Amino acid sequence: MDTLYVGIDVSSKELFASFLDDNLHPIIPPAKYPNTPDCWHEFSQLISSLSKDYKIVCGLESTGDFHIGILHTLQAMDNIEVHQLNPASVRYFAKALNVSAKTDRIDAQIIARYLATIKPQGACSKNT
Q1: Is residue 88 part of a domain?
Q2: 126 is a domain residue
Q3: What is 1-70 written as a DSSP string?
Q4: Does any domain span residue 22?
Q5: If you average pLDDT over every residue of the chain, what do you get?
Q6: 39-44: which pairs have CB atoms within 8 A and are 24 or more residues apart?
Q7: Percentage, residues of the chain above pLDDT 90
Q8: Which CATH number do you get for residue 94?
Q9: pLDDT tens digit string along 24-37?
Q10: Contact 124, 74 (CB under 8 A)
Q11: Tally of structural domains, the chain
Q12: Which residues form the domain of 42?
């Protein structure tokens, strides 16, 4: 089964997600969601539908308390990996790629690329 890497950039008001396959190609267009409980549920439903065709690996940076809701929502799901990433590690990875622009879309894509390249260990949710 192919892997889908989901990079999630979290802010106080929005989540921006990028969906890349093993070859770093987008599977679906990047998506933006309000950072609210209703949208966490909507996002988890999307992830659940994608998990029928892909092994799902999600990652997000710890950003104050803004990431807690979506993190807990994803952790409660079966059959996906969730990684809470150190923002400094992701920033250094972006620098290594010579990416200096900073937008939500770019940050989400960098997080997905980080997951696909680094393959972090120690997921903070259930694994299959």
Answers
A1: yes
A2: no
A3: --EEEEEEEE-SSEEEEEEE-TTS-EEEEEEEEESSHHHHHHHHHHHHHHTTTSEEEEEEE--TTTTHHH
A4: yes
A5: 92
A6: 39/15, 40/69, 40/70, 40/73, 41/73, 43/15, 43/17, 43/70, 43/73, 44/73, 44/74, 44/77
A7: 88
A8: 3.30.420.40
A9: 999 999 999 999 99
A10: no
A11: 1
A12: 3-118
Report the distance separating Cα 36 and Cα 81, nearest Å: 21
| Residue 68 CB contacts under 8 Å (≥ 6 apart), including other chains | none
Q: Residue 67 is encoded by which pair of tokens?
A: 């990431």
> Which pair of tokens denotes residue 88?
């400094």
CA dist list (Å): 15 to 20, 34, 98: 16, 6, 24
Report if residue 124 sits inside a domain.
no
Q: Is the pTM here over 0.85, yes or no?
A: yes
